[in-house]
């Protein structure tokens, strides 16, 4: 179980607990449940890399405590 921190740079910082074998789509659903935003309106990225929904957190080498950027489409 890992904890990922997502910051939307608008004052909202979300901490989500998930497994390393979860996909980015699963992470989006967990973030949507906490923020009240629809999962299809969320974009997760780090610098200029936009993460795809079907790839796992382990494949992107996302570890415990990593900070990601949260954007709304």
Structural commentary:
- Strands 2-1-5-3-4 form a 5-stranded mixed β-sheet, with helices on one face.
- The chain is globular.
- A hairpin with a 2-residue loop joins β3 and β4.
- The mean pLDDT is 89.
- Helix content is 16%, strand content 34%.
- It has one domain (2-72): Ubiquitin-like (UB roll) (Roll), CATH 3.10.20.
- The protein is α+β, with helices and mostly antiparallel strands.
- The protein has one helix spanning 24-35, and strands spanning 2-7, 13-18, 42-46, 49-50, 67-72.
- The longest helix is centred in the middle third of the chain and has 12 residues, at 24-35.
In total, how many beta strands?
5
Helix tally? Answer: 1
Beta-strand level of the residues, as a percent range? 25-35%
Return the CATH architecture: Roll
Task: Determine the CATH topology.
Answer: Ubiquitin-like (UB roll)
User: What class would the helix/strand composition place it in?
Assistant: alpha+beta
Alpha-carbon Rg, integer:
11 Å
* CATH class identity: Alpha Beta
Mean of pLDDT? 89
Task: Pick out the low-confidence regions.
Answer: none
DSSP helix fraction: 10-25%
Q: Count structural domains.
A: 1
- Shape, principal axes of CA atoms: globular
What about the largest sheet? 5 strands, mixed
Widest beta sheet: strand line-up: 2-1-5-3-4
- The helix/strand order is EEHEEE
Annotate the secondary structure layout.
Elements: E1 2-7, E2 13-18, H1 24-35, E3 42-46, E4 49-50, E5 67-72
Parallel strand pairs: 1-5
Antiparallel strand pairs: 1-2, 3-4, 3-5
């Amino acid at each position: 179980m890992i904890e990922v921190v997502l910051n939307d740079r608008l004052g909202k910082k979300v901490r989500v607990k998930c497994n390393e074998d979860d996909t980015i789509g699963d992470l989006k659903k967990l973030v949507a449940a906490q923020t009240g935003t629809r999962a299809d309106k969320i974009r997760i990225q780090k610098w200029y890399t936009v993460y795809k929904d079907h790839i796992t957190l382990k494949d992107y080498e996302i570890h415990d405590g990593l900070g990601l950027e949260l954007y709304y489409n």
